[in-house]
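Consider the following assembly input.
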Amino acid sequence: MTVHSEQLNTQGVQNETAEQVVVAETIEPTEADVEEMIQKMEVSISNEENQILESADDRIEGAGTSANIDPEKAESIFTVGGFAERINYIKEKIKTLATETKDKIKSFVSSEPEVIHFKDMIPEHIATTEEIPVAEAEAEKQLYPEVVPIQNVENTEEVVETPEQKEKRELNEYLEREVFTKFNLTAEDQERVLAETPENRREVLERSFENSRKSLEAFYEKQVVVGAVDDYDVDKAQKQLMYNTLASVLEDGIAEIKPKLLGLGLDVSLGSLGFTPETADRDDLAGKFTEMNNRVRSAIRESMEEKIIRALNENGEYRGITIPTEEQMRDENFMEQRSQQIKQVEYEEIENISNEIGFPEWISQTTTKIRRTIYFYKS
Amino acid sequence: MSDPKIQQKVKELESIMLQYKQELGVLDKELFQAISDYQKALDEERLKEIKQSLNI
């Protein structure tokens, strides 16, 4: 009898399970699932709240840094401009919304003690290998509705281009048309630049690229453009661009004339002129160029004086100039004529040395390059 | 607790979460816009400084 009864019971469970398999194709959530769902929702709400608030703080802090503006001035604009009040108000609303939603969710936690029935421990249906992924996906949908991205909630029916997306697309088109193609940036570069470029930076970035495009195309290098974008600090990027383009004008010029200047005992370099990325601007370039020219002239004059003095000491004469006797030194007319003669010889010698090292031509070419550079930065 | 009640709970929870996400999305946008406006104000200030330094 006992055996028979067990057999009947077993048969009964099997029959019940078979019937349920037909009816229940989807997984029915249990009370335990609901509690797990509530816990996950609470964690999700806290995470999202923290993420948004932290991201906002980072952006506010980054705004001052990226604009390269005095921190006190940035703080003043933040407060006096009403941004602090406006932003804090929205942050408080986000905190309140999170707290209220968590409170609502908590009210769903059951006060009834959970009773586990033996019947519930028997699987209603043993899923096949093919059914497991489908069932898991279904369960995922039911248990974790929060996996739906925020931005899709409002646009589930139709895809409408937001102003931010429109700006991004236009920037993409602009970069493709005016910059990337021109400088042979790869699609990979483009994607990286776009991914890293803040959308609200478009106007400033465009100006930067516009300057970049116009500024001495011959001096452009891919690294310069990429470097400008890598530096979110637009002002710093501009300075870097200026330095790269302006410095190349001086560097090229110095490279041409340097061996000849070394012959005059003059060692000129960008570093010795004090031209650095931090100080580089068009005014500084003009100043450094003038300083360099003065140094070259001074070196030529010193070279000429040494040449004449050496000749007088060795030969007692150079191109009609002699060492005056005591009697000649008392003769004012003689000394006046000698002075004029020396000036003429000096002038001619300076010209000779200048021509030897190609200084006039160098000045002309470099000045043209500088003028062109400055013109493009002004435009 | 019976299954229909649990189902009902799940639906209500989903509804609360959906509403939360919609409201949060709106606030997030407002916050983003406010910070963008602040950033724009800083950029404008910086541009003024640059223009002054370049005498443009």
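Chain B touches chain A through 40 residues (CB under 8 Å). Ask yourself how this observation constrains the way the partners meet.
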